[in-house]
Amino acid sequence: MSARFPAFYGRARTIVVRDPLAEFLGAADGGVIEYSYLDAVKLAGHSCPTVAAAWLAVLEALQRLYPAEMPERGGVRVELRGALGFKGIAGRFVRRGLLVFGAPIQADLRLTRLDSGQWVEAELRHAPAMSPELATALRRALAPGAPREARAAFAGGWQQRVEALLA
User: Which of 8, 59, 72, 135 has its CA 20 to 30 A from that of 47?
Assistant: First the structure.
């Protein structure tokens, strides 16, 4: 089932960044990633004036920080004056405190239903161990002045590990 969204989402300006980690790991050609307002809506789980205002504020701030170059993802610290979390609407839809790090649980991850308290734990599926060849490719790719071919060889091998995990 494919979700349908209002057409105006597609007319909003996009944010294009260069992500050196995405480039290094071969996740995006040249590390260039374009984010749309729809991406923000999907991650927030909704669209509202606050989400739209935040989108526009980030667009403007990135244009001011990087007036003549592409913004670098991972090269900007974000600080917020306001309190953490969405407080909901009339006591409903509260999303504060739903992500917890360092939880005292047995597995890697626990999901808990807020309505019933029922929970399940899950272990992360780990990728196959890095082969000696890929480890060598990593060292070559990290070397100062590493040629593009060395970086591309590592990135290709890295993404093969990801593909194997998702298969």
Answer: 72
